[in-house]
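Late entry, glutamine complex.
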Amino acid sequence: MIDELNKKILEERGIDYNYALEKVKSGYPIQYIIGDVEFLDSTIKVNESVLIPRFETELLVDMLNKKIKELNLNNIKVLELGTGSGCISINISLNNVNSSITAVDISSDAIKVAKENALHNKVNNITFISDDMANVNFEGYDVLVSNPPYVMNSEDVGVETKYEPQIALFGGEDGLDFYRLIIDKLSNINSKPIIIAFEIGMLQGNQIKDLFNSKLPMYDVSINKDLNGRDRFVFAVKKVK
Ligand code: GLN
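Prediction complete; structure with ligand written out below:
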């Protein structure tokens, strides 16, 4: 239940193994007990206010950083919606010097954690905003990235997510509420991002592609898979005129 590596970390940090084991047995995430996780080039503090960063999200950031390089974008302005622990924005910052990032989350407790994480990873180009993304002005960014809550309300999530903030997980009846909101808002502004990058649920790719086709036809949309071969990301790049 607790692997050797985590056992060693518990020992190093003076956290009682039996105490940890009891909690883990009840489904409590070991990451919250240890208090931080490695995420790409950063160490990210986590507590019950934030979703535990997933491996898939490392892929999202990796693919996005590659896309930014491929398109030769410099001095980029980035908007991240639903930043949680801040792991996405922090790793965009670490890979894109001279970027300027705005990271939004509705949870002020999550923003508190994200700010600490930025500080700890020596990142100082992120402006954190605690607000509903519906209230945020999307105008004028080069890159928009989001891993929004995308689980369907009716979905029976496993015990491993029971202790995580539920508002970070559930995205409405079909799980698409936040993509709809974001795409709607983008369709109503003038200066739209060059790249839009989403993490998505494995069955949502085609529906999100349809949303783009009807509301944001000026984007080329691709659906990308995670390492399990499941649809997990949508990348939309503005067509050159
Ligand atoms: N991948 C997460 C899970 O399955 C969901 C994350 C999200 O909704 N953004 O638990």
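The helical segments are 4-12, 17-25, 30-34, 55-70, 87-95, 108-120, 177-187, 205-215. Will revisit in the morning.
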